[in-house]
Write a structure and sequence with these properties.
Elements: E1 2-6, H1 18-29, E2 35-39, E3 52-55, H2 60-70, H3 74-82, E4 86-90, E5 100-101, E6 104-105, E7 113-126, E8 135-145, E9 158-160, E10 163-166, H4 172-175, H5 177-188, H6 197-214
Parallel strand pairs: 1-2, 1-3, 3-4, 4-10, 5-7
Antiparallel strand pairs: 5-6, 7-8, 9-10
């Protein structure tokens, strides 16, 4: 299995490399051979060779740099997604897959536009849609989306075929044990074995504290 971690060197805010680490740890635990390819601006991207592509969050300036690099691969990315290959995109990197970011043309993969506005910083605890458990994490960006055709979670993100895009950070796979199980079982097409005791304990503790705060 080949996993492409794109722009690991500058789209790396908020510890989002944790998503790659937990994926790798679980695959190792299940004795699944895999290779993490850390790729950036000096690399030629070969989407037809990847089983999973991961792109994390970055600053607005770094987002623009990544977008300009990805534009020459627009057709390859579109084909990759339409072929049902797996992609996980977190934070403001999701902006790049719409039509426009303010007045700048984006990748035109999905039909939405992003307007930059007041920064949002908030904890998130919402319905998971594709899983029974609620999704938790946080949002820290200034992206406002004009439409949502394929929501991944409750009024949030994109789930189209095997494209998973979300503005929720955390890292999301680390903080949501049931979601990482869902994601990796689908990626590998297997029922994997998991040792997520610490992650599950942390999830339950957050939920408990969140509910206590709501009822104060």
């Amino acid at each position: 299995m080949k996993i492409a971690y794109l722009y690991y060197d500058f789209l790396n805010l908020y510890g989002e490399s944790g998503n790659i680490k937990i994926i790798s740890n679980i695959l190792k635990h299940n004795k699944i051979k895999h290779q993490i390819l850390t790729l950036s601006l000096d690399d030629e991207l070969e989407f037809d060779k990847y089983d999973l592509v991961y792109i994390a969050s970055g600053t607005e300036n770094n987002q623009k740099i990544a977008l300009n690099h990805l534009k020459k691969y627009q057709k390859d990315i579109k084909k990759y997604i339409e072929d049902g290959k797996f992609m996980l995109v977190t934070g403001n990197s999701l902006d790049m897959f719409g039509n426009k970011i303010d007045e700048e043309t984006a990748l035109n993969i999905f039909d939405f536009n992003v307007t930059k506005g007041k920064r949002k910083m908030e904890e998130v605890y919402i319905n998971g849609n594709i899983i029974k458990n609620k999704i938790l994490g946080f949002i820290n960006n200034n992206s406002y989306v004009d439409k949502l055709e394929y929501p991944l979670f409750e009024n949030e993100g994109i789930k189209y075929k095997n494209f998973y895009g979300t503005y929720i950070l955390g890292p999301i796979l680390v903080r949501n044990p049931m979601f990482v199980k869902y994601f990796l079982d689908n990626l590998t097409n297997k029922k994997l074995k998991y040792d997520l005791k610490l992650e599950t304990k942390a999830y339950k503790e957050f939920v408990k504290n969140f509910k206590e705060e709501v009822h104060e």
